[in-house]
Automatic annotation (TrEMBL):
Gene Ontology biological-process entries: immune system process; positive regulation of transcription by RNA polymerase II
Superkingdom to which the source organism belongs: Eukaryota
Biased composition (Polar residues): 181-190
Localization annotation: Nucleus
InterPro entries: Interferon_reg_fac_CS, Interferon_reg_fact_DNA-bd_dom, Interferon_reg_factor-3, SMAD-like_dom_sf, SMAD_FHA_dom_sf, WH-like_DNA-bd_sf, WH_DNA-bd_sf
Protein name: Interferon regulatory factor 9 isoform X1
IRF tryptophan pentad repeat domain location: 9-116
Length: 395
């Protein structure tokens, strides 16, 4: 039973039951006498009382079992938790029981139910089979590259992003990496901003109008429907799947980069589309994309395996899909060009300048294409550019 070949073929269900029965992990216990449900500790890795050896133990064990972590590697409790959460949520053998979970107590936990085999093969209602297969095909056809993930963390090039001019000469280059400039919010402010992942109407929040000069407004769409908006005050961020409870440990991100999480898919009413969206995010968007905003404009670097296409004022191909190559820095928005075009718009009645950028995950998109039929899209803009476009012009 100790051989690697045997261990690697064990199913998640068997592994999980063995871990609960072992009693080795604090907080990982059965939740009912019949041993059909279990509690799993779910403390936020950014909490001051987070105990790595206890609160992250079960997630680290899963990473070791899946050969994603070995002794000597960098500790990464946020990623470990995300991996196990995705595995549990994707498996038909487990069901999260949210009404039994306790996430707002000092020792938070989630409750999962082990689904009996008979319940795992429930036939769809009449008329649903074709739609389910359609969604499955849609997911299978989504452009995705099964590339080997780089082991080393990718640091955005400060020279390329034009950030050197914004860095005080009294601070070393290493200490002034992306996400650590003096104008960035405190960890508590960032955490508060991340946790406020609320469904919103199309009106911008008051925070938008109090944002810094190069703050970004990021709007999330699922199936073309607006899900939420987030204002990112810091100069850079990484957008990735999960939730604040699943991975908001800022120490796991290069340069203490702020993390912005894809919102919950609860607003997707079509069950099959919701599952397709969740499955794609878990499988192919794990490392997400990194964004930087400064006086030069908005820049992006794709780190995830899933393909990402974009449209915007700097897109080289008009009317055709523009793909973001992996680990390549791309300028999405040119602030200087925008200001020039804005002046011509006001003084010479030229066309209004474009200031919004769209990222489409897993599916091709081109200028003029609707996002209505796309599973996952983001709209990104500098708050300053938005304000300049909306405010009345005075000569």
């Amino acid at each position: 039973m100790s051989s690697g070949s045997v261990r690697s073929t064990r199913k998640l269900k068997q592994w999980m039951i063995e871990q609960v029965d072992s009693g080795k992990y604090p907080g990982l216990v059965w939740d009912d006498p019949g041993r059909t449900m279990f509690r799993i500790p779910w403390k936020h890795a950014g909490k001051q009382d987070f105990r790595h050896d206890e609160d992250a133990a079960i997630f680290q064990a899963w990473a070791v079992f899946k050969k994603k972590y070995k002794k000597g590697d960098k500790t990464d409790p946020a990623t470990w938790k995300t991996r196990l959460r995705c595995a549990l949520n994707k498996s038909p053998e487990f069901q999260e029981i949210s009404e039994r979970s306790q996430l707002d107590i000092s020792e938070p936990y989630k409750v999962y139910r082990i689904v009996p085999p008979a319940e795992q093969n429930i036939k769809p209602l009449p008329g649903c089979k074709r739609r389910k297969q359609s969604i499955k095909n849609e997911l299978m056809n989504m452009s995705c590259e099964e590339e080997v993930e780089a082991e080393a963390s990718v640091i955005l090039d400060l020279c390329l992003l034009g950030l050197k001019s914004d860095i005080s000469s009294s601070v070393s280059l290493e200490d002034s990496g992306i996400g650590s400039n003096d104008s960035s919010p405190s960890p508590q402010e960032r955490l508060t901003d991340t946790v406020s992942n609320v469904l919103m109407e199309s009106q911008p929040t008051p925070a938008v109008f109090q944002a810094g000069p190069y703050a970004m407004l990021i709007t999330f769409y699922y199936g073309g429907q607006l899900v939420c908006r987030k204002t990112v005050q810091s100069s850079d961020c990484r957008i990735l799947p999960g939730s604040p409870s699943a991975g908001a440990d800022r120490n796991t991100v290069p340069g203490n980069m702020e993390q912005v999480f894809f919102p919950s898919t609860v607003s997707i009413t079509d069950v099959n589309k919701r599952q397709a969206t969740e499955q794609f995010m878990c499988k192919h968007l794990e490392k997400g994309v990194m964004l930087a905003s400064n006086s030069q404009g908005i820049f992006v670097q794709r780190s995830c395996q899933g393909r990402v296409f974009w449209t915007g004022p700097c897109a080289p191909l008009c009317g055709q899909p523009n793909k973001l190559e992996r680990d390549t820095h791309v300028q999405l928005f040119d602030n200087k060009q925008f200001l020039k075009d804005l002046d011509l718009y006001h003084t010479q009645s030229r066309p209004a300048p474009e200031y919004q950028v769209t990222l489409c995950f897993g599916e091709e998109i081109a200028t003029g294409h609707s996002v209505r039929d796309k599973l996952i899209t983001l709209q990104i803009e500098q708050v300053k550019a938005r304000q300049l476009m909306l405010q009345p012009f005075s000569s």
